[in-house]
Each structure stands twice: as structure tokens, then as C-alpha cells.
Amino acid sequence: MSVLMSAFATLVGGLADLLQPLFHAGSAAAAIILFTACVRLAVHPLSRAAARGQKARTKLAPQIAELRKKHGKDPERMQKALMELHAKENVSPLAGCLPSLAQIPAFFLMYHLFSSREIGGEPNELLGHSLFAAPLGHRWADALTRDGVFTGAGLVYVALFAIVAAVATFSFRMTKRQMAAAPTPAAPEGPDGRPLPGMGAMTKVMPLMSFGTLLTVAVVPLAAGLYMVTSTTWAAVERYFLYREMWAGAAAPKASGAARGAAGPGGAEAA
Question: What is the DSSP pairing of strand 118-119 with strand 130-131?
Fold first, then answer.
């Protein structure tokens, strides 16, 4: 672990040195943003695969409904039929989780790097870097104790919280639209095609989970919080472009149906 941390510290330090002529005292913060962008770029193929999987599962919804009617009383047959259907259509039920899981190691590396006073038996020089007035190794509580809310380091956190709140609101609306566009049941299903116990409530809460980043940024070192802010902002923009066709396709039938309903018999006669 110490070897890995030393290598990671060297990487971040090298990026900071490279960016120093452009960003001066903020070079380490810029290095964290650049590193996060590289991680997101590396994970992008998984995000595209997750988007393709979601679209494929949406198209498979009628077939899954038929399987549920046919094998609803036989969980083993249902599970086998679902696995065969997913294999036939080359759809992985776990594809949507992969982008998030792939980033966990990078986040924890950043967290531990800026929580450790020593790396490989040497003083952690990265702790001497800051984002404006806020040291990258400090937390929001440190900023409140030292400067208060609206001065110095406190203002850096106010700006980060504002960005996170804006991105979380945007993500909340996108999640609601994605759930409305999917004709599949609201609750995630198990291998037998039945909703998992307790997951219905989880699904209702899911759109609000984007606001959990606010809490994370408040309690982790600023460097890890900066990673979270950059990653969630990238994810929101990426998600918008990957899923906009699906939302548009789902909105069109609803709009035409609403128009027909509004016209009614009287509308047809008037035409």
C-alpha cells in the first residue's frame, strides 16, 4: 500500500509541477482536476456501455413482461429465461454499476493521500498546497474554525457547495426523467424477475442521492472533495448527452398521446 501511495503522490506531484507555470499556487488543485478528468475519460467506455445497456433493457421491457406472465410462479424458470434473454441480446444487468465502481479506488487514493502526513516515510509535501486560501488537506470544519463561513477558506467551500447543489439539482431532474422514460418497473428486479424486497423505497429515494455529494464534500479533505465535485459535474454532463435520445424518444409518444386526448371527439369533428 505504501508503494502505491508513493507512486500516486509522485503522479499528483508531477502533474502539479507541470501545471505550476499556468496555475502557480493552485497547481496541485489543477492537477487533481486534471487527474479526475483523466479517470472519467478512462471510465467513459463503461459509461457508454451502461447507456447502451439501459436502452437495451428499456427495449426488452415488453419481452420481460411476457416472461413474467409465463413463468411468474416458477422463479427458477424465470431466472433462466431472463439470463437467456440477456445473453441473446448481449445485455448485462450490472453494466450500470461499473462506472461508479471503477472510480472508487481513485477516490480513496485521493482521500488517503491528503489525509496522510507521511508518504513512504517522507513528509507529505502535497499538504502544503492549497486552493486559494483553503489547504487541500483540510476539511470544512477546519475552515469554519479558522476563517468562518464567508471569509478565506470558508468562501472556497461556499463556492464548491454552490457548484455541487447546482449539479445535484440537474442530476435530480435527469434521474426523474430517466425513470419516467423507462417502461420497466420502478423497483429493481432480482434474477427471478421479481422486485427486490425494500428496493421500491430505495428507488423513490434514488433521485435525491445526488445531493449526498454535499455531505461528502463537507467531511472529506478538500482534495477529495475537489475530486468529487469534478467527477459529479463530468458525470452529469456525460449522462445528459448519453441519454438525451432515450428521453426524447420517450417524450414523443407521450406528447402525441396527450394531443390525441386533448382533441377528443369534439376536436376530430372540428378538424
Answer: unpaired
What is the C-alpha separation between 204 and 94, in angstroms, rounded?
20
CA-to-CA separations, 244 to 48, 143, 175, 248, 266, in angstroms, rounded: 13, 39, 12, 6, 35
Highest mean pLDDT (candidates 92-101, 134-143, 176-185): 134-143
Report in angstroms the alpha-carbon separations of 37 from 177, 199, 214. Answer: 26, 32, 20
All three cell numbers of 182, joined, read 423507462
pLDDT band at residue 231, thresholds of 50, 70 and 90?
very high
Distance CA 2, CA 61 (A): 48
Mind listing the pLDDT tens digit for each residue in 124-133? 999 999 999 9
Number of neighbouring beta carbons within 10 Å of residue 210 = 22
How distant, in Å, are the alpha carbons of 49, 128, 140, 161, 252 from that of 149?
42, 22, 9, 12, 47
Spatial distance between the Cα atoms of 186 and 180, rounded to a whole number of angstroms: 9
The residue with cell 416458477 is 74
C-alpha cell at 204: 423513490
pTM of the model as a whole: 0.78
Cα→Cα distances 100→3, 37, 121, 185, 200, Å: 25, 14, 32, 23, 21
What are the residue ranges of helices labelled H in 121-208?
140-146, 153-181, 199-205
CA dist 135 and 142 (Å) reads 9
Distance CA 147, CA 153 (A): 6
Give which of 251, 247, 212, 252 is closest to 228, Cα–Cα: 212
State yes or no: pLDDT of 84 exceeds 60: yes
